[in-house]
Amino acid sequence: MEGGCAAAGGALTFLVGDARIGCQGLGNWMVRGFEFVAFTSSEEASVAISGMDGKDVHGRMINFLPSFLSQPRMAAENPSTMKAVQYDSYGGGAAGLKHVEVPIPSPKKNEALLKLEAAAINPVDWKIQKGILRPFLPPRFPFTPVVESLLRLPTFLGVSVISDVAGEVVEVGSGVNSFKKGDKVVGLLSFPNGGGLAEFAVTTMAAMAIRLPEVSPSEAAGLPIAGLTALQSLKAIGIKFDTPNKSSNILITAASGGVGHYAVQLAKYAGLHVTATCGARNIELVKSLGADEVVDYETPEGAKLKSPSDKKYDGVIHCATNIPWSTFEPNLSSSGKVIDITPNFTTIAASILKRITFSKKKLIPLMLVPKSGEMEFLLNLVKEGKLKTVIDSVYPLSKAEEAWAKSISGHATGKIIIEI
Ligand SMILES: NC(=O)c1ccc[n+]([C@@H]2O[C@H](COP(=O)([O-])OP(=O)(O)OC[C@H]3O[C@@H](n4cnc5c(N)ncnc54)[C@H](OP(=O)(O)O)[C@@H]3O)[C@@H](O)[C@H]2O)c1
C-alpha cells in the first residue's frame, strides 16, 4: 500500500511492509511491520535493517510523527502476525477449527500482552462452540477459543466463562503495575480479547498469578479452571484449607477428569475421607492420587454411588453429568451437601426446592469465580509436591483439533494441554 501526508514541513510518502519512507527535512525512515524508525542517511538505514537498534532514534524522532504514526507498536524484533486457531460458526466440532494467521493484539491501558507457552482445553470451550451460551458467547465470529474469559454474564444467568493459559508478559499497558515484561504467569484470559489457542493473547491481569519456576507451563496451564473449581467446590461444602477440618466423608464423581483429579488431591490435603468414581481403567490412578475408596461408575454399585464401606457422604463434588438428586439423596448424611458443577435446569429447580423447604440436605450449583489468591495457593501446592497436574495428552498448536476432539470424547484422564 502506498500513501502520503505532510509531516513537519515535508511531504511524507510511505509503503506498508519493509520499505523506505522518504520525508523532506527529516531524513530517511524505515518501516518494518508496525515499527517506524528514523535514520540520518539512507546508508545507515540499509545497514541498520539487518541489525536494528533504533530505540534512541525512535525515541527522539517520534515527537515529529503525526499522531497516527506515534501509537505504541510491537517492537521491531517481534512479528506483527501470529498463528491462531479459530472457528467461524456454531457447531462443527474439531472439524470446525481453522488455522489462521492474524494480527498480534495490542494491550490497552490495563492489559498485558502474553506470549503463550501453554493452554488447556476445558469442556466449556467446545460447549461454547456448540452454542450452549448462545447468544452471549462467542461475542463474535471468527472466534479464537480457549480464550474468552472472566466474562461474568448477567448475574441472573449466574455464568462465568473462563480459560486457562500460561505465558510470558511481553508488553504491559500503562495502567498495569503488578506485572512487568518478562514475568512468567498463569491464569485466566480476559474478555473480550484474543484467545488461548494462539501464539499471543491480550488480557487484564486480574486473574493472573506468577508461575513459579518449579511449575512447568503445562502443569500450570491445567490449574486455573479445573483446579480452582475443585478448590471452590470443597470450600462450598465448608472445607477449610488453613485450619484442620472435622472428619468428613466426601464423594467425588468423575475423579479421573480435569476437575475431579484435582478435587481428590485437595480433599486428601484437607484430611478428608474420599470415595471416588471413575472408569475401570483409571481406578489405580485415582487411588494413587489418594482416594480411599474407588468405584467403577459402570458397575451397578457405581451407578448407585454407594460407598463400599457403607459411609454416608457429608459432601459430594459432582463432576460427572446427568445423575439425578434421587441417586445422591440416600447416600448423604443428614446435612450432606451436593456441589454440582454441571448444573442444568432440573438441578437448579431441585436446588431451589431444597432451599424453600429448609431441607438440611442441599444441592448447590457452583460456577467458578476466578481469584488470583487461590491460584497462588494452588501453584504453591504444586511447587511443594502436594498437588500435581495429571496430563492426559499434549498437542502442538498445529494439532489443536486433535486435542479438541479428545476433550469432546469425554474420556480425558486429567488435563489436555496445548504447548505453544
Ligand atoms: N461449574 C463450573 O464452573 C465448571 C468448571 C469446570 C468444569 N465444569 C464442568 O464439569 C464437568 C467436568 O469437567 P472436567 O474438565 O473434569 O471434564 P473431563 O476432564 O472431560 O472429564 C472426563 C472424565 O470423566 C470421566 N467420567 C465421565 N462420566 C463419568 C461418570 N458418569 N462417572 C465417573 N466418571 C465419569 C471419564 O472417564 P471415562 O473416560 O472412563 O469415561 C473421564 O476420565 C464438565 O461438564 C465441565 O463442563 C464446570
Automatic annotation (TrEMBL):
Regions crossing the membrane: none
Record-linked Pfam families: ADH_N, ADH_zinc_N_2
Lineage: Eukaryota, Viridiplantae, Streptophyta, Embryophyta, Tracheophyta
InterPro entries, per the entry: ADH-like_N, Chloroplast_QOR, ER, GroES-like_sf, NAD(P)-bd_dom_sf, RBD_domain_sf
Species of provenance: Zingiber officinale
Domain Enoyl reductase (ER): 92-418
One annotated GO molecular function: nucleic acid binding
SUPFAM superfamilies according to UniProt: GroES-like, NAD(P)-binding Rossmann-fold domains, RNA-binding domain, RBD
Protein name per Swiss-Prot or TrEMBL: Enoyl reductase (ER) domain-containing protein
